[in-house]
Amino acid sequence: MVGLKEELLKSIWHAFTALDLDRSGKVSKSQLKVLSHNLCTVLNVPHDPVALEEHFRDDDEGPVSNQGYMPYLNKFILEKVQGNFDKVEFNRMCWTLCAKKNLSKSPLLISDEDAFKVWVIFNFLSEDKYPLIIVPEEIEYLLKKLTEAMGAGWQQEQFDHYKIALNTSREGLSVWELIDLIGSGQFSKGMDRQTVSMAINEVFNELILDVLKQGYMLKKGHKRKNWTERWFVLKPNIISYYVSEDLKDKKGDIILDGNCCVEALPDKDGKKCLFLIKCLDKSFEISASDKKKKQEWIQAIQTTVNLLRAGSPPPHKEARQKRKELRQKLLAEQEELERQMKELQTANENKQKELETVRKQLEAAAARAAEEEKKRLQTQVELQDRFSLELEREKMASSARGFLLQKMEEQVAQKSSELEQYLQRVRELEEMYKQLQEALEDEKQARQDEETVRKLQARLLEEESAKRAELEKWHLQQQQTIQMTEAEKQELENQRMIKEQALQVAMQQLEQLELERKEALEQYEEVKKKLETAANNTKSWKDKVAHHEGLIRLIEPGSKNPHLITNWGPAAFTEAELEQRQKSWKGKKATSE
Q1: Which backbone phi and psi does 287 adopt, to 5 degrees?
Q2: Rounded CA separation 31/8 (Å)
Q3: Which residues form the PH domain (predicted)?
Q4: How is 444-465 classified by DSSP, letter by letter?
């Protein structure tokens, strides 16, 4: 239900954003009421006008705004949706509300109906964030599907240029920009409106109506056992069959589940390319048009049953989910890589700052050491001068030697103390030097860590290249499949030409038979006339015979008087006729005597 809610929200978002705003920048309450009533109608949700009126109060802090409408939409409409509604009718209602305001006025290669189907496909492929956009990867997927449906070749280089230009300006396209892109014919050059419309309809059936396969086949009846041609439509859990492909007269359904199976049958009763669909309650015998269609249907039905057993979604929905997960994974890896690079950059900057601080400290220590060395040298020179002066004085006043010697010992002790201080400063400089060495080692380690991250980035780039190569491989396989399909289309075209030639020959034979039938009819008329003439001649001949020969008479309906019975059956004359002929014979006999 979460996925259904997301799909519904996308269409409702288009309809909501198309509503007019009042002077305060909010959607009027009347428009929201109309929208809510229409949504309840198409979603088969009970309409509650009392709750609607209570929710949209006429106060300044009421929820008549973009944010305030969502609580009502979720509580009173979306949470009550059961799925027993017509998705196409729902999308068409939302499309009607937003198309007039946003659809481009410039002439397009596609009709308004095709634009509606592209709008629904956009909602299926767009990202789950608002405002809705479709990313370049999904644009490429849709354009490839349309190109394959039109039977044309995919122009990868052309799309790469378009993708580069798109990425430099924004993340993706809105639905109206996508409709303009497809309607402009930029990626369908050389194709007429009908071909583009058929391609959009085919992609719409697959992605939106979940039509996995469709086509004409023969189905054997369960009662009369006769074979009837039907239009079959395969969906993720059902096979529906109709009288024709306009889907107006539905004849039945074949409910699919994990217990169903499909198997090929041998040819019988004059039917070829047979296969059987077994379900729990009944089985269905079906005849495909050729072996290729038979294999395609068996494979498609078996794949659908396997998906039902595994509880997996339809292939196109699973592929869309995988593409989204791949994009999210790449985005997460890119963000992680950027985060690591930022951390390394920050650590490197901190190390640089520490090194700069140590350098300044070393420079200050070196300056102090130089100053102290200068003072020491100056002190040493002064001491030497003083020693020289002292020696001069010692030579001049040997009497004061003891005093000077004691003074010199004090000075030597003072110089020893100064030397100890100097050695202490030298040790401090050596300690600072060690700290500088450690700082340099830290910098070296930081550079090694940076090199490791660069190698990791290079490995990720290589993996991305490998993935791209794998996608290219899939693309080549699709191209090979398209080429095989083109060859099969060519073979079907040759068969169609042969059948057309055979039909022309049959038409010529039919015309010849028609001529022969007309000739036979004329001969029949002539024979009929001859028979009529012969019948007339026979009648006149019988009249003559009856006139000259008294024993011979035409067979006519008998009189109601009783007939004479002879040894050979009923006589051909009555008693009155017999008496008259006896008198005639007697008269002739008397005359002859």
Answers
A1: -120, 120
A2: 19
A3: 210-306
A4: HHHHHHHHHHHHHHHHHHHHHH
Distance CA 535, CA 466 (A): 100
pLDDT tens track for 441-488: 887 887 888 888 888 888 888 888 888 888 888 888 888 888 887 888
For residue 142, give the nearest of 154, 132, 131 by alpha carbon.
154
Distances (CA, A) of 401 to 294, 383, 392, 405, 416: 132, 18, 11, 6, 22
Fold of 227-313: PH-domain like (2.30.29)
For 1-102, CATH gives 1.10.238
CA angle 30, 31, 32 (to 5 degrees): 90
Q: How far apart (Å, rounded) are the C-alpha atoms in residues 275 and 264?
A: 4
Q: Which amino acid is at 338?
A: E
Tens-digit pLDDT profile for residues 214-266: 999 999 988 888 899 999 999 999 999 999 988 889 999 999 998 999 999 99
Cβ neighbourhood burial of 70 (10 Å; 0-12, 13-18, 19+): middle
Residue listed under structure tokens 């194709």: 191
The enclosing H or E element of 286 equals strand 283-287
Q: List the one residue out of 101, 90, 121 whose CA is nearest residue 207.
A: 121
Q: Which of 16, 196, 198, 203 is nearest to 102 (CA)?
A: 16
> Cα separation of 556 and 533, whole Å?
21
Residue with tokens 């290219």: 472
What are the beta bridge partners of residue 234? 213, 239
Residue 174 DSSP code: -
Per-residue pLDDT tens digits for 73-90: 888 888 888 878 888 899
Strands 569-570 and 565-566, bridge-based pairing: antiparallel
CA 273 to chain centre: 30
